[in-house]
Amino acid sequence: xxxxxxxxxxxxxxxxxxxxxxxxxxxxxxxxxxxxxxxxxxxxxxxxxxxxxxxxxxxxxxxxxxxxxxxxxxxxxxxxxxxxxxxxxxxxxxxxxxxxxxxxxxxxxxxxxxxxxxxxxxxxxxxxxxxxxxxxxxxxxxxxxxxxxxxxxxxxxxxxxxxxxxxxxxxxxxxxxxxxxxxxxxxxxxxxxx
Length: 194
What we know:
Helices cover 30% and strands 32% of the residues. The protein has six helices and seven strands; from the N terminus they run βαββββααββααα. The protein has helices spanning 21-30, 90-93, 102-106, 141-150, 158-171, 175-190, and strands at 9-14, 43-52, 54-62, 67-74, 80-89, 118-127, 130-139. The protein has a five-stranded antiparallel sheet. It is globular, with a radius of gyration of 17 Å. 35% of the residues are buried.
């Protein structure tokens, strides 16, 4: 008798409000009805990962949360974004049937009929100094433009910002990055996007 092969796994890099293992797990369970039959809902935190050449910003507007939300943009050589690297069932990230995945729904990646904030991409992050290919979500240029034009006075909500900082603390991001993240959040929270 052949044993069933384990579910294909994927890596997911989370840098914003869903860094916390508890928060991400809760969101996956909240959206579990969108998972294909047989998909495993459990996630495993691999640790803190670094994405070189990118920087964290608050430049998107979430209608669902009614506030500015986090994003990452390509930066310069010295820029970096730290976040949580998770391993999870590949079907939660990229469905084999082409339907929207659970993570697409969590991150607000929509079909062409609704404006999208985020789009899925693959990035190379460092985990313990080793390169790992991971999926993540970044803002689209059209979403950034909509934020500037349609929501010029938008601000992030304090509870949203706290979720980012709590998640960063929970996964143990480096203190140097935590300080830089807090400074970025504070500065951008006072300013309008754009």
